[in-house]
Write a structure and sequence with these properties.
alpha/beta, six-stranded mixed sheet, 28% helix, globular
Length: 134
């Protein structure tokens, strides 16, 4: 009986230590929706990165670690070749403060992309970025 209680407690403790997957807030846009993600949720997502991570800020002001590509937010449509060809693939966008990545997210949703995530508050809310890397 003591072993059973110990195993049950251990299981509960371990389950409580698991990271919660990012759920994000759903933002409705013309043609669909995208997810806002907080800096804490992004940090969790980056541990098991399964997405294309894009900096859309102009002028360039540095990247968050693990960034895959930088594409100016107002040139996102002209640079679709740098995005996954599968419009259902997960893409996470960010900029310095959040506005440019919102515009890019809305554009991608209007073009039929279905798994777009946007860093709420941008790079200034995230503590882990390195200026000058590209």
């Amino acid at each position: 009986m003591k072993k059973l209680i110990f195993l049950l407690l251990a299981t509960l403790i371990l389950a409580g230590c698991q990271s919660k997957p990012a759920s994000g807030e759903t933002i409705t846009a013309a043609g669909g929706s995208y997810q806002d993600v907080t800096p804490d949720e992004l940090y969790t997502m980056l541990r098991d990165k399964d997405f294309t991570f894009i900096n859309v800020h102009i002028p360039f002001a540095g990247n968050i670690a693990e960034t895959d590509v930088s594409i100016p937010y107002d040139e996102i449509e002209q640079n679709l070749s740098q995005l996954p060809s599968d419009k259902n693939a997960k893409v996470v966008l960010y900029c310095r403060s959040g506005r440019m990545s919102q515009i890019a997210a809305e554009k991608l949703v209007s073009l039929g992309y279905t798994n777009i995530w946007e860093l709420k508050g941008g790079m200034v809310k995230s503590v882990s970025y390195s200026a000058g890397t590209g």
